[in-house]
Every structure is written in C-alpha cells, then in structure tokens.
Specification:
15 helices; Rossmann fold; alpha/beta
C-alpha cells in the first residue's frame, strides 16, 4: 500500500482479509510517521460522533498521527452519520478514520461520502475457495489434511479466514508431531480439548447435563473468546441443523442418510446429534429456535453485566424447559411467551 486515504469504509464479512488490509495500512502509516501512530477503537453504542471527532480534530499529544477505528458502523445513528459526513468533506491531515462493518451495504449517502479508493468490500470465500484455503494453510505448515477433516472444519468454524486460521493453528498444536490430519484429530480437538467452545457446550446440552452446560458456558465467558451474540449464533446454527435432521428422520430417512445430506460428519459429532433427536421433539426444537432468536434480540439491547445471567437463563430454557419458559427477560422486563 503506497497511497493512503484520510478515511476508509470497510464492508463485508471476510474478517481475515479485512484484518490483513488494516495491518498493511497501519504499517504504511507508521513508516510515514516514523512509528509515531496512536490508535483508538470505538463502538457506536459506547461513544457518539462528537466525542470521536473531538479526538480526530485535536489530535494526540503523544504522536503525530491518529488512527481511529469505528466498528459496527452499520449501527451509527442518523445524527452521527451526518456529523461524520460533514467531517469527511474536510478531513484532518493528521488522522485516518476507519469505519468497518460485516454488512455488505450501508446507508447510501454515508457510503458516497468516502473517496472511491477508500471503499472496500471484503466478500466471504466461496465453498471451493475455503477448502483450498484450509488445505493450503496446512500445506504451508508442513501438514496434510484429508478431505473429510476439511469438511468437518468448515462445518464448525465461522465462515471467515481469520477464524479458520486461528482454529487450524490450534488443531496443529493439538496434533503434536502428527503431520497428517484426519477427521479423528478434528473431533478430538473439538470435543476433547481443555478449552470449552460453543460446540462442546452444545454437546453437553444434547446430553441433558444442565450443570455441566452451565460450567462450560462459564468457561467460555471467562476465556473472552467471542461475544455472547456470537455464542448464540453458534447455538442457533447447531439447533437449526438438529431441526433439519429431525425433519429428515420424520420423512423416514435413515440416520446416516440424513447426516450425509446435512453434512454432519464424524462419529462424535453424529453422536451429539443423535442424542439431540432422541431428546427433543420437532415442536420443542422449533420453540428453542424461537427462544434463541428472542435472547439474541434481547442481548443486543441490555448492558454487558446482564449478559451472563441471560445466557444462563438461555441454557436453562434449552436444556431443562426444552424451549418453554414461564419468563423470558426482555428490555421492558415483560414475558414474551410461555
């Protein structure tokens, strides 16, 4: 990157490529300022445009250039967008402002305020590209990986290269000296590692182990890996697949045929889903999906200190009440359904 813009709008869900772009930009700015670069991060729900722009216009006492990164830019209020649009007409020479969101599109007027060279969309990879990316990553590290193991990774890892890279690095570390990665290695990593994940949490929920599920949830929250909204997203993905499995079994597909159609691979993974279809009826799964969507909406509105309690209520609703609950916390403290 040789030329830089005073402001950037970074759209799209491909976090790995987006992060690489940001790293390259930071290095370019550091080279130009002799390493004198101070960075700040803001979220729309934590700070307003006036606070951010005061920092941008006044600069820093400790560096010659300021880099401000505003995340979840799709959540900016109309008033904040208008203030930033006015700023972009006469941006500071001593600051670079980055707006990023995982959305593909954003307010048209706001988007048009950025220079063309400052607007970038980072698209997620196609299915064949993701497979090639994982195979290539293992090859670069001196490993080979069989096709079924690649498929299982794609089933359980978020669809961006940042998450794929992180999980592949963990798998290699867990495999030790083994250079050929097989599906059993992925299973061992996902379901037997010391670290709890949304997948090990789902496994405990399928076993109906409420206390163990709460313990797994606590470890996930303590680790700081992912947000509560991402956690619910992982559970939603798995429960939707479980409902699809339930539907195929009701249509008289064999369990193995249904797993093959849905891409549920690996003995341990299939055992988790088999436990799930034995535990829940179709109606119960539908109610759980409704509950997950309700909790997802609520978590986006409440203060962060409420999040652990809400997630514990969610686990209770799924494991003990099987989707039914006498009370679901909402922003106005009313029950939505029973």
């Amino acid at each position: 990157m040789t030329n830089t813009e005073p402001a950037y709008l970074l759209l799209g869900p491909e976090l790995g490529k987006k992060e690489a772009f940001l790293t390259n930009l930071k290095e370019t700015l550091k080279d130009r300022t002799g390493g004198s670069l101070e960075e700040f991060r803001f979220y729309p729900f934590e700070s307003d445009a006036m606070e951010v722009l005061a920092l941008v216009r006044n600069g820093s006492l400790f560096s010659s250039h300021t880099l401000v990164h505003i995340l979840q830019a799709d959540a900016l209020s109309g008033n904040d967008r208008n203030q930033f649009i006015e700023y972009l007409k006469h941006p500071s020479e001593n600051a670079t402002v980055i707006f990023s969101t995982e959305e593909i599109k954003i307010n048209k007027t706001f988007e048009a305020a950025f220079p063309k060279a400052g607007r970038h969309v980072f698209w997620e990879l196609f299915e064949n590209e993701k497979k090639s990316w994982i195979t290539g990553f293992f090859k670069q590290t001196g490993h080979t990986i069989d096709s079924e193991a690649v498929e299982l990774i794609l089933d359980v890892v978020e669809n961006n290269t940042q998450e794929m890279k992180r999980e592949c690095e963990r798998i290699i570390l867990a495999a030790g000296e083994k250079t050929t990665i097989e599906i059993e290695d992925i299973e061992n990593f996902l379901f037997h590692s010391k670290e709890e994940t949304v997948f090990s949490l789902f496994a405990k929920m399928m076993e109906g182990k409420f206390v163990s599920s709460l313990e797994a949830l606590g470890k996930i929250l303590d680790s700081g890996e992912g947000s509560p909204v991402q956690l619910i997203g992982g559970l939603l993905w798995q429960f939707r697949k479980l409902l699809d499995l339930r539907g195929l079994l009701d249509e008289h597909y064999s369990f193995q045929e249904a797993c093959d159609r849905l891409g549920i691979r690996g003995k341990k993974n299939q055992a988790n889903y088999q436990a799930g279809v034995s535990k829940y009826t179709r109606r119960e799964l539908e109610k759980i999906l409704m509950a997950l969507a309700d909790f997802d909406a609520t978590l986006r509105q409440v203060r962060s200190e409420m999040e652990p309690t809400l997630l514990e209520m969610l686990v209770y609703t799924c494991v003990v009440k099987k989707g039914s609950s006498e009370f679901i916390y909402s922003s106005d403290c009313t029950s939505k359904w029973a």
